[in-house]
Amino acid sequence: MKQSKWTIVSNTRIACRTYLMQLQGDTSAIRPGQFVEIEVPGCYLRRPISVCNIEGDILTIIYKVVGQGTAQMAQMPKGEELDILSGLGNGYDLTKAGQEVLLIGGGVGVPPLVFAAKRLREAGKSVRVVMGFNTADEVFAEKELMALGCRVDVCTMDGSYGTKGVVTDMISTPAPYYYACGPLPMLRAVTEQIGTNGQISMEERMGCGVGICVGCSIETKQGIKRVCVEGPVFDAEDLKI
Amino acid sequence: METKLGNIVLKNPVIPASGTCGFGLEMSGWMDMNRLGAIAIKGTTREARYGNPQPRIAECGATGMLNAVGLQNPGVDEVIAKEWPALRAVYQGPIIANVSGFSIDDYTYTCRRIDQETDAAIIEVNISCPNVHNGGMAFGTTPEAAAEVTRAVKAVTAKPVFMKLSPNVTDISAIARASVNAGADGLCLINTVLGMRIDIRRRKPVLANRYGGYSGPGIFPIALRMVNQVSKACPGTPVIGCGGITTAEDVIEMMMAGASAVEIGAANLTNPQACTQIIDRLPQLMDELHIDHLQNIIGIA
Predict the structure, then answer these.
(1) Above 70 in pLDDT, residue B135?
(2) Is B272's CB within 8 Å of A204's CB?
(3) In 3D, which of B284, B225, B274 has the Cα closest to residue B15?
């Protein structure tokens, strides 16, 4: 948990309304599944964005333009300095994974799974990634995941890329222990059809991102939890989704 | 930088506002808590509360945010048993306990527990939460109801009682006077300003609760005006100024309006080190403005 200045090294469009930004700064103690809070000039609140990768002193994030803040981020030039809170949230517990691991991602839920895939591959795990998008022009991260040695299956809602359908169509049960991140309808389908033997990364509108405003609290089977501190990663069996 | 709230001496006027510093523990990861003038912990109710459904945060451009948290808290039992000792482990200064309720009985029950079982320096009575129905703000919008809560709370505690007032009223001075006449030792204002945002694509309110409390720099001029009015209407009563304070300059301005100390709210959410950065800057700014003692500028404007 740290507040520090970061310099934009690159900021490029990689898919429809989707951008990859690399920032140089203090990457110490950032774990897969955690997020950063980025101060965007002109916006009152910081923008919580999941961590996609750490390589040396370079932080990679992938974000989708969904509003004023992310639209402004997309315009930021190389060399610009940003104030960022890093190392936020609990992150994935990767020790629970068996030898076979399943990663399930939907849309901009994919980026934190890329970081998880990297660590899992480093640990010698056999990783299958199933990811879903709406259309072909939204697809990203497929090559990077394959380069890590993951088996990657992509599906799109309209069939314009990969298999036509949704992620749960491509997973047979019993499935191995999983890590999932994506839109709520996808997460619901995963818990209903694949089961709760895994971890789910949640998203909620945040105020502070550091646990003090309790704006992002959700009700779980283990009581009230703040997505920003006790999450964003929860055991799937504890969630009420 | 020293200032006073009644008989309580604060080493500086900077207090993180209730609801923007939790029960202190998370904030201690970002700063040395003992540098704060005091801390106003999360609003506490008789029973544990989850609060309102999601979403309960909405941004308002560059000027602030809406929240409709709705007094999420673990209830007074757990606050006393767990949160209080956890805060005391990292912070030894004055604690302002913020109490909310849905009936007079709720308020007196919770205040009595805080009075008897904690070392709170001040009890701040929230009669101004805009995000709960049948309670909170309902007690803060008429002079009669504000006086009734004040009298009831004063009867169960010997600790200083500060009433936290709502800006969502026609005449805040009348409510302030009624509170002081009923025995309030001090006042804290303002709580958030009732507001709304609409998602124009979904054609629906952003907040599940429809309306929420607006906080941040956008409300600073409103807070300043109300602190000025109230401090003039209630001479001799210490006022904690709150609402949109972001910089050391804002602190000085708020004290010149009549505040004896200030609460920093939304600024903590955008920068968890906001309070200590303001404290760092204050002495230098006092030098620039030729201010020897902060107590000399209270209400000077």
Answers:
(1) no
(2) no
(3) B274
Rounded CA-CA distance A127/A152 in Å is 9
Q: Calculate mean pLDDT across residues B17-45.
A: 97
Output DSSP code: residue A196.
S
Q: Which residue of A84, A213, A217, A226 to mutate against B (max B Cβ within 10 Å)?
A: A213
Q: What is the pTM of this model?
A: 0.94
Between CA B44 and CA B42 the distance in angstroms is 6
Q: What is the ipTM of this complex?
A: 0.92
Q: Given the residues B21, B129, B188, B242, select the one marked as catalytic.
A: B129
Could you read off the pLDDT of B153-206 as tens digits, one per residue?
A: 999 999 999 999 999 999 999 999 999 999 999 999 999 999 999 999 999 999
Fold of B3-296: TIM Barrel (3.20.20)
The two beta strands, B95-99 and B3-5, are: unpaired
pLDDT for residue B134: 58
Q: Are the CB atoms for B26 and A210 separated by under 8 Å? A: yes
Coil, strand or helix at B283: helix
Between CA B299 and CA B155 the distance in angstroms is 30
The token pair at A21 is 């930004």
Closest listed residue to residue B27, CA positions, set A41, A92, A3, A111: A3
b/e map of B141-150 (b: 16 or more CB within 10 Å)?
bebebbbbbb
Contact residues on chain B for A39, CB-CB shorter than 8 A: 270
CA distances from A124 to A100, A127, A150 (A): 10, 9, 11
Whole-angstrom CA distances from A63 to A20, A22, A66, B203 are: 7, 11, 9, 25
Domain limits, chain B: 3-296
List domains and CATH numbers for chain A: 2-88 (2.40.30.10), 94-201 (3.40.50.80)
Q: Which residues of B touch A206 (CB under 8 A)?
A: 57
Answer for the pair B244, B90: CB distance below 8 angstroms, yes or no. Answer: no
